[in-house]
Amino acid sequence: MKRFSIIMAAYNSENEIERAIQSVLNQTFKDYEFIVVDDASKDNTNNIVSKYSNIKLITHKVNKRAGGARNSGLNIASGEYIIFLDSDDKLANKFVLEEIDKKIGEDKPDLVYLGFEAIGESMQGDFLPNEHNSVKENRMVEWKYENVWDICWNRKFLNDCNIRFVENRYFEDFVFYYKGVLKSSSYKFIEFPAITYTSSRPESMTNLVNPKKIEDLYYNMQEFIKLYEEIEPKYRKYMVESIRSVNKYIDVLLNKLI
């Protein structure tokens, strides 16, 4: 079994995916498998990835959005730990996997929280986990970044808890992230940036609002609320606080439609 499975969902990524690929292939720690899922790209993404014999390439004929692409990668992954990497981001340096492996050690926690550095027009700076913000209740109400790519996930934990992504919808990270955090029983964290995140421009497609995005956020909220009876009662009040926060965000999106 490999130590890591690195899963990258890619869609029309010909302009940036090479940088992401090289950040993985240049790692000093080599005990990993690298899975790229081309989610029905219409550009040269598939041809670029096909050049690398050491990448497992899955090609979707129909676009399933990032959630569906990541699920396809998870379904064939064999690594002990899962790291999700977006095609426009990269591992921050060549020692990232080596340092995460050291942190995991023999304890094999459910989660390893990773730091990230954000570059771009909409977000900049280092965002790092620590003892305070890694505590479960603070992850729910204080840590504002529901990213699946700044957590290293124990694959057995994901499978045992049946944690998978919502497919064909926006905000696919939402339920996966919170289900993982709420159901985890052990964690570690590293206090340095492991991921370089390229933040999008305020006017980019990622930040454009449409009714479909709002519909999908409501759908994910319904899935999230189903977790209420499954989690320890002492964490339910923090879940309610997260719901209130999302409701405020929905109001922001609705106002942008006017």
Instruction: Report on the biggest sheet.
Output: 9 strands, mixed
Oligomeric form? single chain
CATH topology: Spore Coat Polysaccharide Biosynthesis Protein SpsA, Chain A
Order of helices and strands: EHEHEHEEHEEHEHHEHH
The general outline is: globular
**If classified by CATH, what would the architecture be?**
Alpha-Beta Complex
Strand element count: 9
Describe this structure in words.
It is a single chain. The chain has 258 residues and is of the alpha/beta class. The chain has a single domain, classed as Spore Coat Polysaccharide Biosynthesis Protein SpsA, Chain A. It contains nine helices and nine strands. Strands 1, 2, 3, 4, 5, 6, 7, 8 and 9 form a nine-stranded mixed sheet that branches. Strand 1, helix 1 and strand 2 form a beta-alpha-beta unit. Helix 7 packs parallel to helix 8 and helix 8 runs antiparallel to helix 9. The chain is globular. About 2% of the residues have low confidence.
Short structural summary:
This protein has 9 helices and 9 strands. With 258 residues, the protein is α/β, with parallel strands linked by helices.
Looking at this protein, list some descriptive labels.
258 residues, alpha/beta, Spore Coat Polysaccharide Biosynthesis Protein SpsA, Chain A
